[in-house]
Amino acid sequence: MKTVLIALLVASFLVGCCPANRKGLLSAGYSEHYVDGYLDGYSAGSRVAGHPFYQFTRDLGRYERDHQYTKGWDDGFTIARGEYIAVR
C-alpha cells in the first residue's frame, strides 16, 4: 500500500511539473516551430536545474536558423529553470 501511495505521489508530481503541452500551446495560437522549441527548451532547462526526469534537448540546426524555434527554446528554458529552482 505504501508503495502505491508513493507511486501516485510521484506521478502527480510529474504531471504537475509540465505547465504546458503541445496541444495546449498550439490551441493558444503559438506556431508549431515555437512550440517545438518551447518543449525542447523546457526539457533542457529542467535538466540544467537538476530535475532527474528531463533531458537536455536542443536541435542546434533549427536553433541557429529558425527564429520561432529559438524564441520558443529560450522561453521554455528560462521558465523551466526558474520553476524548478523555485521549488527545490
Could you give a short description of this structure?
The chain is mainly alpha-helical.
Structure description:
With 88 residues, the chain is an all-alpha fold. It has one domain. It has 5 helices and no strands. The longest helix is centred in the C-terminal third of the chain and has 21 residues, at 67-87. The relative contact order is 0.18. Mean pLDDT is 83; it is low at 7-17.
Beta-strand percent range: under 5%
Structural class: mainly alpha
Which sheet architecture does the biggest sheet show? none
Helix amount, in percent? over 70%
Could you tell me the number of beta strands? 0
- The whole-number mean of residue pLDDT values reads 83
Number of helices: 5
Rg of Cα set: 14 Å
Q: How do the SSEs run, as a string of H and E?
A: HHHHH
Q: Could you say how many structural domains there are in total?
A: 1
- Stretches where pLDDT is under 50 for at least 5 consecutive residues are 7-17
Shape: globular
Ends distance:
27 Å
